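We treat protein structure as text, and this decision shapes the records that our systems exchange. This encoding replaces a full spatial description with a residue-level series of whole-number codes. Below, we set out a record of this kind in full and without editing:
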Amino acid sequence: MFGFKIVENLQKMDKDIVRKDLKYHNKRVLVSKEFTFDAAHHLHSYEGKCKNLHGHTYKVIFGISGHVDEIGLVIDFSDIKQIWKEQIEIYLDHRYLNETLPKMNTTAENMVVWIFERMEHALQAFPNKCRVEFVKLFETPTSYAEVKREWMIDV
């Protein structure tokens, strides 16, 4: 059994490990990142509480897959965050969704497809055949809509 040990000799590149060994495999791997945002909306042609203006703290979970690069990464988590911040969140966080999203009923089911499409488009600029495998959009802690890659392709 391994006990706690203080590292005395930090592994050094080209001394203890060589660059060609940084990539361990050629498999497709899924990485996941989640974000939250607060927004207001209301639903059209709906006879329930949600026809009134109200808000949610939404949670979005992305599953992004790709092949690892020469150092063993599919995509840096900070790159996913940058796409989120610059190309998606700006339309969502602290916004009136009926005004900032395309003309649609702002249901979780419609919004999750829009979010998938935005992220998928942004990933085209990245190597490693990165692609969105799924997006989950939680409207409440116990209620969410989800879209998967195969559902977007096999319409």
